[in-house]
Amino acid sequence: MFPHADELNYFIEVAKTKNISRAAERLGIRQPSLSAAIKRLERQLGTEVIIREKTGVQLSRAGLRLLKSAQQLLDDWDEVKYSALRENKEAVGHFTIGCHSSISLHMLPERLAGFIAQNPGIELSFQHALSREIVESVISWKIDIGIVVNPVSHPDLIIKHLCHDMVSFWHNPEKIQSRDVLIYDPALMQTDWLLKNMEKNNKYKQYITSSSHELITNMTLEGVGVGIIPGRVAQTIGRNQLQWVSKDQPGFKDEICLVYRREITHSLGAEKLIKEFKLTNYKNFD
């Protein structure tokens, strides 16, 4: 158990005066209360911090070591309290946003530049991973806010719908050189579902895999083959040159959501950032 700040302050005063009665008088508390606080501190440390003598007290070896660290501990605690109070009252702080790299291309608030300009006390970091990994990081406090696809309900999370997307088969009809080549990300659950639902009508003879949706989209754009791509990525990177291969082929409807812990909203900066995402007018792609 970490010592209470008052106990450390009491100990520092005893160390300065070398006298419990005088320290109690300077602190404005009763001597028995001060002695009890020092005893609690010693129980937490598992050793004595002062040696009582007839003429006063002396610090033990453990007490000397504690004295070197006690003031820094109190200064650090004051800084934590100040930062926490400031974040509650001002739009300040450093926040980590997690999302898949392809989602970041089209899901960041369109007014992000304006938001940053209006909130100079806010700093942002972005981490990119699969949606399920982002959700786990939000639950474990490693990421503050996540933009994820198809999140599963969790008691520690707040989940807010942003928009829909559709993962399907795309090609560039002006450049495609082979309709027998399929380009896709094998790690995506959506890809696995699409491949299983087209097994009977599978016409592809050659496969190219990549974990980069940007690369898949660019290869599709250059006519290398047919790509399995989220619709928003196809439109953003594909520069409106990509088209669905066929409306008869299966598509996987995704829900894109904002996820965060309730506790993060105690920070005014985080609350404003979440509000910015909610107010952004994302068009559904379905």
Kindly describe this structure.
InterPro entries: LysR_HTH_N, LysR_subst-bd, WH-like_DNA-bd_sf, WH_DNA-bd_sf. Belongs to the LysR transcriptional regulatory family. This is LysR family transcriptional regulator. Keywords: DNA-binding, Transcription, Transcription regulation. It comes from Microbulbifer variabilis. The two termini are 54 Å apart. Strands 3, 4, 5, 6, 7, 8, 9, 10 and 11 form a nine-stranded mixed β-sheet that branches. This protein has a two-stranded antiparallel sheet with strand order 1-2. It has 286 residues and is an alpha/beta fold. It is elongated and about 95 Å long. β1 (50-53) and β2 (56-59) form a beta hairpin. The mean pLDDT is 85. α9 (213-221) crosses α10 (231-238). The protein has a domain at 5-89: Orthogonal Bundle (Arc Repressor Mutant, subunit A), CATH 1.10.10.10. It has helices spanning 5-17, 20-27, 31-45, 61-89, 101-107, 112-118, 131-139, 189-197, 213-221, 231-238, 268-279, and strands spanning 50-53, 56-59, 93-99, 122-128, 145-149, 157-171, 181-184, 206-209, 226-230, 243-244, 252-261. The protein is built from eleven helices and eleven strands.
